[in-house]
Specification:
2 copies of one chain form a homodimer. The first copy, chain A, is of the alpha/beta class. Chain A is built from 14 helices and 16 strands. Chain A has helices at residues 11-22, 24-31, 60-63, 80-90, 100-117, 134-140, 155-167, 171-180, 189-192, 195-209, 228-236, 299-315, 354-361, 389-399; strands spanning 2-7, 35-41, 55-56, 68-73, 94-97, 121-122, 146-152, 219-220, 239-249, 255-265, 277-284, 288-295, 344-349, 366-369, 376-381, 403-409. Chains A and B meet through helix 2, helix 6, strand 12 and helix 12 of A and helix 2, helix 6, strand 12 and helix 12 of B.
């Protein structure tokens, strides 16, 4: 029997307890011993919970208990969660987390401390919910130079875009539906603005490079200004509109990174992910492309990824210190956004002569999209001619008031 | 620097050497030291190969060399590959294999010996080529009771079915095309008859249960009798026709297992895999569904999975003995085929009154499919009423000469 503690008994934390109870036999078999939840740290009490008697309000009850080997952090955020994670590691406990915000903001510090203390800091659940992606990137694909990591990393926004596409409803209507179903938080800003996807992309990029990528350096756009008409164009083009995060390794070991709504072919493997599902494509120089797909969030899927990390720790107690850290350097890893190549669908008010557009983007740089009944012009730009984000932005500024909006193509 | 040996310098074996050379920097970083190919065992010589000077024809040069810690087995088959794998393990070497036939036939013996010798026997590359699936099942999904493993496990047959679907060509034409492109071997029987997929399914099922499943117990049908008309029905039904292997856990810990061509909805995640790609769906009781997709075969993808296992061994030399073995028991794990539930598309010569079909399968047990210009009748049977494989077979026997063929539905 191995004793663990859970810090933060919210959705994921209580899910961890539920998975441990529900699958106790399977877990005992895999870990070689049973897992006992000895303490739960939370500000609240849970008198009706089956684990309610383990609740403590004092963190020291965990850190000072030599019988507790593994601590699960499911508090979230970068405040108290950081303090308690550092304390847990300093106390010689393995730490397992689902907290992507913390890993994205303080990963290097936490991993370095874990290595120094001879314990593990594990974060499979921080990306892709229950979908295995962190460990596969570390282990299974370790013989590859990873060239691309791209995909749908946020379930809330994917649900909203799927509903706007399928039901033809507006963004605010789809958001209300997502909230009613529990797929969006009451304050969904981090999801809608792309921040959540951006943190996950930065974590995946950091694993890929073995170097810390600050998520704040990644150009990030959310989905709040997506209009039903955008979805109509997507359908017209046999495409779907998805919030996609993309990491692309450059020959000089810098990377193109972006999180933004993009049009993607309906037959592309990433586009298989609708509703709250995630899909992450990894391209390696030996492997070619592989895709990981599934429920990217939710109580039990995320909890099952946390418990898998706990099992890994339990199997290797004292033998498997944290092995990989992210180097922190001053070199600029993320290529400046303005220099990145781009193709986009540009929607214009219906009053510009095609000649003017072609003059702006070159004779082969723009292609008119004929969509019936939409009472406007739309162009695919950067098609024939390479165009950078900076060039696109400059040319759209010249069109100024005529531009309704633009959406990138995933290419 | 860690020394390894490669036994069998064919497609995958030489791919292992190529990946080690091509990605030497990445591998050194991940493994914590460089990997040196010290010996290559093969009957042939390779004077023009960059590693030609490492070739030996004497296995003892590997087993008796205390500097070689890890041995890669890429010989294939169950003859000499078994002997040499056992000898390597007995000599205290870690063994990494891509040989699904060997793992499916002798996994328990090899794993037990590895455990006894305190070394690892690793086989990520035996299923799904470069797609991570063995380790994710073992590790990442370890907190789940796995209820279903299903998917497209063979690239050759998937290429043939994709071409028959897209180009409307016959089986033999598509096979010739696959052979011309190097996607099918000159003797492709094990692929076409479903044996290769069956072995992979048995390996995945064995991992899931922690018990050895003899692949010979799994009902297996190949694709050699698939007709272009079958593909036309698939298109008519908005489905694809795929060779699917499926493991389903039953409440009594037995399993329904089958490999057969099946009709699957075009929007199902598994159906995303066309051409030589594989797609494997795993359903866990906490996770829900997750899908693993990518190149299921090929020199470099498969080799990259072998090298990933080598890296794992190299990272944990002396610290990570083989931990999971497959128990061998007399209990009948695979439910008798006749008892498994089934739904199928049944094609009949156009001369049976619908009443007769409904009388046979019950009023809600069969649904007529109207397909223009196909000059025959087709029915979906087992739709409304539960039907076992045994019942379906018996009723089709009563129709006898009127039956052109039947294809299962993936449900």
């Amino acid at each position: 029997m191995i004793n663990i503690a859970i810090m933060g008994y919210g959705v994921v934390g209580s899910g961890v307890a539920e998975v441990c109870r529900m699958n106790a036999d399977t877990i005992r078999k895999k870990a070689g011993r049973g897992i006992n939840i000895k303490k739960i740290l939370d500000l609240r009490d849970f008198p009706d919970d089956p684990f309610g008697d383990r609740v403590t309000h004092r963190a020291g009850d965990i850190f000072e208990d030599p019988d507790i080997a593994i601590v699960v952090e499911t508090i979230g955020g970068t405040g108290i969660a950081l303090d308690l994670s550092l304390q847990a590691l300093r106390s010689g406990k393995h730490v397992v987390t689902s907290n992507k915000e913390l890993v994205a903001a303080h990963g290097p510090e936490l991993m370095a401390l874990a290595q120094q203390m001879g314990v593990s800091y594990m974060y499979e659940a921080s990306v892709g919910g229950g979908i295995p992606i962190v460990r596969p990137l570390h282990k299974c694909l370790s013989a590859n130079v990873i060239q691309t990591v791209a995909g749908i990393l946020n379930g809330t926004t994917n649900y909203i875009l799927t509903r706007m596409d399928a039901a033809g409803i507006r963004f605010d209507q789809a958001l209300a539906e997502a909230q009613a179903k529990g797929y969006a938080e009451q304050n969904p800003t981090a999801d809608l603005d792309g921040l959540d996807a951006c943190r996950k992309l930065a974590i995946l990029g950091s694993i890929t490079l073995g170097e810390y990528i600050d998520s704040r350096k990644v150009h990030t756009e959310g989905i709040t200004s997506i209009m039903p008409t955008d979805l109509l164009y997507a359908q017209h083009l046999q495409m779907k509109l998805k919030l996609i995060g993309r990491f692309r390794l450059l020959p000089d070991r810098r990377a193109d990174m972006i999180v933004a709504p993009m049009l993607i072919s309906r037959s592309h493997p990433i586009a298989v992910a609708d509703d709250v599902n995630n899909a992450i494509l990894v391209e390696g120089n030996a492997l070619g492309e592989a895709l990981f797909y599934g429920r990217g969030a939710g109580k039990l899927p995320t909890a099952s990824a946390v418990v898998a990390d706990v099992i890994e720790c339990a199997m290797h107690l004292g033998r498997l210190p944290h092995l990989t850290t992210w180097a922190v350097s001053d070199r600029p890893i993320v290529r400046p956004h303005d220099e990145c190549p781009v193709q986009a669908l540009v929607r214009l008010h219906d009053r510009l002569p095609p000649d003017q557009i072609r003059a702006l983007f070159g004779p082969h740089g723009a292609e008119l999209i004929e969509a019936q009944d939409l009472h406007e012009q739309a162009w695919l730009v950067g098609q024939g001619a390479p165009l950078s984000e900076g060039q696109l932005a400059a040319r759209l500024r010249m069109l100024d008031a005529d531009v309704i909006g633009r959406i990138r193509l995933f290419v």
